[in-house]
Design goal:
mainly beta, five-stranded antiparallel β-sheet, 12 strands
Length: 126
């Protein structure tokens, strides 16, 4: 199941410095970011890798499902990181126009290993 972790952040009058060091539980082999609501419509895939998602700007609701369990996470600060396991199926919802999401992945992207599953359920926000 997915889980949120807090990233160490140092703040003073000059601004904030957020550090991603020794908190990601896998070796990072790929880093990418997506921005603009139209780019998020590719959610709903299950990938054979671990991922860490950080919302650098804006906000995003991520709905996650593993088996019969469903979770919802709101990412709206750059000091939160959502860890996703290979068995997690997640979708990005309620994305603000200015959103930028950065993803750290445990494996390089291989299109043939990406599992696009038909949506068999509806995420409920209640």
């Amino acid at each position: 199941m997915a889980r949120l972790i807090n990233l160490k952040t140092f703040t003073d009058t000059r601004g904030s410095l957020t550090v991603i060091e020794r908190v990601i539980p896998f070796e990072i082999k790929r880093i990418f970011y997506v921005n603009g609501p139209d780019h998020f419509k590719t959610g709903g895939k299950r990938q054979h890798m671990k991922q860490a998602v950080i919302c650098l700007k804006g906000s995003c609701l991520i709905a996650n499902r593993t088996g019969t369990e469903e979770q919802h996470f709101i990412l709206n600060t750059a000091d939160q990181c959502l860890l996703l396991a290979p068995e997690d199926r997640h979708e990005m919802l309620e994305i603000t126009d200015e959103s930028i999401l950065m993803v750290l992945a445990s494996e390089p992207f291989e299109h043939e290993e990406c599992v696009q599953e038909p949506r068999q359920y509806e995420f409920s926000l209640t």
